[in-house]
Amino acid sequence: MMARFCRYAQKVFALGDQIAAFQDRRLQPQIPTAAIWSSAFAMYAMRLGSLNALESELRTPKRLDDLVGPQKPSADTIGRVYALMDPIQQVRMLSRINHRLGRNKVLHNAWPLRFLAVDGHEFFSQ
Q: Is residue 125 assigned to a domain?
């Protein structure tokens, strides 16, 4: 199911190209920034409750290889690298996705602004 979702995201939003453009402040990264961001994206897409739950999913052989790649980060690495990333990169990407959803008439909103809040510490989801 994740592979199908990723194909859709690549086709409609060119998500892979946008993720590849992400950078952080590490000088010689061993794990690409795209793998870090894709891991966090997988955590939200799979509705996992924490980075530790994500790490156990990433350690399962062949799981999420298509999305994250062969070098999978640990939970600590994801948190540390996210602190080094410029949030403006993500805001711009979300803005482009929001614009595309509006052009595809997926979001029906009469107001010119849309807001999204993401909190990784929710115990219940709707």
A: no
